[in-house]
């Protein structure tokens, strides 16, 4: 899946998971991030508010999101 920043500099990781529908809510997104279930560019990311920028790839639950 591709996520377009639409002119914004970044999106916070927990917001990205919620906006793309990979998590049903921000609360669930924060939990799965804290549990180490989310990868950013192939590395486990546990910072809920990590800034995701264009060119980065987020993986969770068998799904890939490429940010542009």
CATH-derived topology: Structural Genomics Hypothetical 15.5 Kd Protein In mrcA-pckA Intergenic Region, Chain A
**Continuous helix count:** 2
User: What strand line-up does the widest sheet have?
Assistant: 1-7-6-3-4
Count of strand segments:
7
Distance between the termini: 11 Å
Order of helices and strands: EEHHEEEEE
Q: Please tell me the overall pLDDT.
A: 96
> What class, by secondary structure content?
alpha+beta
Task: Quote the beta fraction.
Answer: 25-35%
Helix % is: 10-25%
> Briefly, what CATH class?
Alpha Beta
Tally of domains: 1
From the alpha-carbon coordinates, what is the Rg to the nearest angstrom? 10 Å
Question: Shape, please?
Answer: globular
Point out poorly predicted stretches: none
Largest sheet: 5 strands, mixed
The CATH architecture is Roll
**CATH homologous superfamily heading:** RNA-binding S4 domain
Explain what you see.
There is one protein chain. The termini are close together. Helix 1 crosses helix 2 (about 25-35). The chain has helices at about 15-20, 25-35; strands spanning about 1-5, 10, 40, 45, 50, 55-60, 65. It has about 70 residues and is α+β, with helices and mostly antiparallel strands. Helix content is about 25%, strand content about 30%. The chain has a single domain (about 1-65), classed as RNA-binding S4 domain (Structural Genomics Hypothetical 15.5 Kd Protein In mrcA-pckA Intergenic Region, Chain A, Roll), CATH 3.10.290. The strands form 2 sheets. The protein has a 5-stranded mixed beta sheet, with no helix packed on it. It has 2 helices and 7 strands; from the N terminus they run E-E-H-H-E-E-E-E-E. The radius of gyration is 10 Å and the shape is globular. The mean pLDDT is about 95.
